Structures are given as structure tokens and as C-alpha cells.
């Protein structure tokens, strides 16, 4: 019998429905090592089952720099390329060197290069039909042995005084900003940003900018414009509001917290209401960021 196979890391970015069809593999492969080194850089290989934040700390403490902006993102290393995790001006694809995978059907192994992975904003080949059957076993990242600081996110530049521009100060600042802005999933169940920031044409962005001058806009690939979903949701008064056993976090309008919902469908219904109100006001469709797994009825 051929079962559908899915890998699950620590489940921090999935919405789990009641029934899961097939075989779920929890990837527990551990190990962190240096597999290549020059005078300036190292390539580290991290087992897919390692915790992401602990890996950021491990790299930083060993003097391998470049992951500081991605501190405190919940989840496992093996899950990180699927969403191409990103925060505070950095994306995982900036440092990816290679991804080791095994095909869940044929058990063939492959080393994928970044050019094979179709990395984009919170997206990769692993979310597509073609890439879904490749299970990630290890991730190789190229990190710098000389301190490099990515201060492109404006609040970071402000948080770090010019006298202490160091990777240590950057790491501390990212952790402090995240703790202040994003509710801790261990204390208040959430999947981080529930929606992606929508990407629209320049014309659409200009029209919205004329009506909503405070709506943050960021340039995206190919001349397109990324809009702040949090701002639009906040503008419509959702921050701190609840429904269906869920709640929009008071700290950040993109975060939906599960207060008392028993089923994934309640969270999804609540978030759909938010998306409908954004569409009605701004004419912009919001896309869910986490993946939904399973179904409401037995299969
Ligand atoms: N804003 C509001 N109300 C809010 C929150 C934010 O109006 O409640 C506005 C503010 O103008 C703020 C702007 O939105 O300046 C942007 O907010 P923020 O810097 O927090 O970034 P974001 O675009 O909302 C993205 C990521 C986060 C990541 C931050 C920081 C997505 C979907 N989310 O959020 O990632 O931590 O940038 O880089 O791209 C995640 O993916 O789970 C996640 C938390």
C-alpha cells in the first residue's frame, strides 16, 4: 500500500486539522558540524531535527556570523527552507549553500543547490507538488568568520548604538524586538504571522498609497510592491479582537492566537473573516502563511 508521506518538524508553522491521512515522519536527525572552511567563511551542516534558535546561538557562539537577524524563530532547521524563513531584513536563502534531501517514495538522496530550490518570499520548491516529496535531512549554510551586521531593518539601526555595533549587540537587539512585538507561542499558541505580506503591482500600490498614505510599502522583486498586512488588519480595528475561540494579538495584528478553539476550522474561519474585511476595504487578497495539514473528517 502506498501512503502519502509528510514530514513534520516541530509543528510551529502548521495548522493541524483533526485527521491526518498517511504517514507523518517526525524528522529527528541531529548534528552540527563544519564541512568546509576558508580564511573568511565556514560552511556548516545542520541536521534537520536540530532546533533553529539553538542553531543560531551555536553558530554565533562559535564565531560563525550571519544568522543573528533570524534569532528566536520557532521551529526546526529542516523546516526552515520550506518557508524560506525571514525576519529583520534577512532571509534564510541569503546563506543557504546546499540542502540534503531524500525522496519519500524512491528513497533516492540528492544535494540541492539554492538554484534548485525556487526560493522566494516565504516560499520554496518544497511547498510545490514537485518538491513536496523531498524530505529535508540536513541544511548547509555559508557563514562568515568576520563579524558582518545586517542592519537594514530600521528598528535595528536605532536599537544598536554606533559604539557597540557588534554581532552580540545585533543578536540581543533582535531577541529584544521579537520578545516585545511577538507573543511567545509557548505561552500563547500561535504560528507567528498568520498572513504573508501581499505583493501587488506598482499601479495598485500607488492607488492605495493615495488613499492610505501611512500604509507601509516595501519594494519587492521585479518592480512589484509588498504591502504591510499587519497595518491593514490593524487599521480595520482587529488588533486585540477575538472570535471563534481565536484572538488577534494585542502586540501584533498579524498574529492570531488560539485562546479556546478546539478545532483548526475555528481558527481558519476567524482568519478568513479578517481576510474578507481586508479584501473589502483595500481590494487586496491576503494569503495564509502557515500550511494547513489534514482534514476535518476521517479519511
Ligand atoms: N504594523 C501595524 N500594526 C501592528 C504591527 C505592525 O500597523 O500590529 C505595521 C507597522 O507600520 C510596522 C509594519 O507594520 O512598521 C511592519 O511590522 P513588522 O516590522 O513587525 O513586520 P511585518 O511585515 O508585520 C514581517 C514578518 C515577520 C518578521 C517581521 C520582522 C511576514 C509575514 N512577517 O512582519 O515574520 O518577524 O517582518 O522582519 O513577512 C513570521 O513570518 O511568522 C514572522 C513573525
Structural notes for this entry:
The chain is α+β, with helices and mostly antiparallel strands. The protein folds into two domains: 5-180, Uridine Diphospho-n-acetylenolpyruvylglucosamine Reductase, domain 3 (2-Layer Sandwich); 199-293, UDP-N-acetylenolpyruvoylglucosamine reductase, C-terminal domain (Uridine Diphospho-n-acetylenolpyruvylglucosamine Reductase, domain 1, Alpha-Beta Complex), CATH 3.90.78. The chain has helices at residues 52-61, 80-83, 154-159, 167-181, 202-211, 229-235, 264-282, and strands at residues 5-8, 14-16, 23-26, 32-37, 41-47, 86-87, 90-91, 96-103, 109-112, 134-144, 199-200, 217-219, 225-227, 242-243, 246-248, 256-258, 291-293. The strands form six sheets. It has a five-stranded antiparallel β-sheet, with no helix packed on it. The radius of gyration is 20 Å and the shape is globular. 32% of the residues are buried. The structure holds uridine-diphosphate-2(N-acetylglucosaminyl) butyric acid (EPU). Uridine-diphosphate-2(N-acetylglucosaminyl) butyric acid binds next to helix 6.
